[in-house]
């Protein structure tokens, strides 16, 4: 089943008010590629300005807390993100799993909080280089899926992003065969855990997606879009990736 493609940009800890000018060019490409869902996830302090600047573009967040409010210094809740204009949130990015020691259980709680607020959860999974080299990649990723999948998943509000840790920001990508194998395994796990809903959950590929490799990656079986880091910061780099979808 061909699902509507999604191309999401993760600005990480990059960008500024001045950099939001890039959204104008991205919004123009999104309007041309109306068969693709285009999402930009800037740092949380820029969400309100980004959504005010481009009401025609989907804006998301890079993380959330699972609690509605409370004594969690430095954290932001889903309802706060939603009020600022976010319609989606990335959870369990490998940089948060490593920098902030987030566990599958944390990721699951964040995804559940997002979905119960009607906000799309983009749950990230992916193996390290050592895990791939030892033949463990599929097992590691399926274990992450089993542990991180929200209990309240719906097809529209859950997206999975497969991002091999060793491919993020390195310019390296897995072979097409390896991406297709992993996405097929994730699809199987989603169907096993969610039933028919699992067929409709989009599975994005992330890790060094560039204008030069986007078309090939985006047309592999079970690849329903891309999660893009570095190449999402400039419309000149991101727009060809949207166009390739
Ligand atoms: P990259 O990052 O495209 O810069 O490799 C992807 C990501 O971490 O989401």
Please characterize this protein's 3D structure.
The chain has 245 residues and is α/β, with parallel strands linked by helices. It has ten helices and eight strands. Strands 1-2-3-4-5-6-7-8 form an eight-stranded parallel β-barrel, surrounded by seven helices. Strand 2 (36-41), helix 2 and strand 3 form a beta-alpha-beta unit. Helix 1 (22-32) packs parallel to helix 10, helix 5 packs across helix 7 and helix 7 packs parallel to helix 8 (176-194). The radius of gyration is 16 Å and the shape is globular. It starts with a strand and ends with a helix. The model has no long low-confidence stretch (mean pLDDT 97). The site of 2-phosphoglycolic acid has 13 residues, from strand 8.
């Amino acid at each position: 089943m061909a699902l509507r493609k999604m191309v999401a940009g993760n600005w990480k800890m990059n960008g500024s008010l001045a950099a939001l000018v890039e959204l104008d060019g991205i919004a123009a490409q999104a309007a041309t590629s109306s068969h693709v869902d285009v999402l930009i996830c800037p740092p949380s302090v820029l969400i309100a300005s980004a959504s005010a600047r481009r009401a025609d573009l989907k804006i998301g967040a890079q993380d959330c807390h699972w609690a509605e409010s409370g004594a969690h210094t430095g954290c932001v809740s889903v309802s706060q993100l939603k009020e600022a204009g976010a319609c989606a949130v990335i959870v369990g990015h490998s940089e948060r799993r490593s920098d902030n020691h987030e566990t599958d259980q944390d990721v699951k709680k964040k995804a559940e909080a997002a979905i119960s607020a009607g906000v799309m959860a983009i749950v990230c999974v992916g193996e390290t280089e050592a895990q791939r080299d030892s033949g463990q990649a599929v097992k590691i990723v399926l274990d992450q899926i089993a542990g991180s999948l929200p209990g309240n998943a719906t097809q529209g509000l859950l997206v999975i992003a497969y991002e091999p840790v060793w491919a993020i920001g390195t310019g390296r990508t897995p072979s097409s065969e390896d991406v297709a194998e992993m996405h097929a395994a994730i699809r199987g796990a989603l169907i096993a855990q969610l039933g028919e809903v699992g067929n409709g959950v989009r599975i994005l590929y992330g890790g060094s997606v560039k204008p030069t490799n986007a078309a090939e990656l985006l047309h592999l079986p079970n690849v329903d879009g891309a999660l893009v880091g570095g190449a999402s910061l400039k419309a000149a780099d991101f727009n060809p990736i949207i166009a390739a979808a």
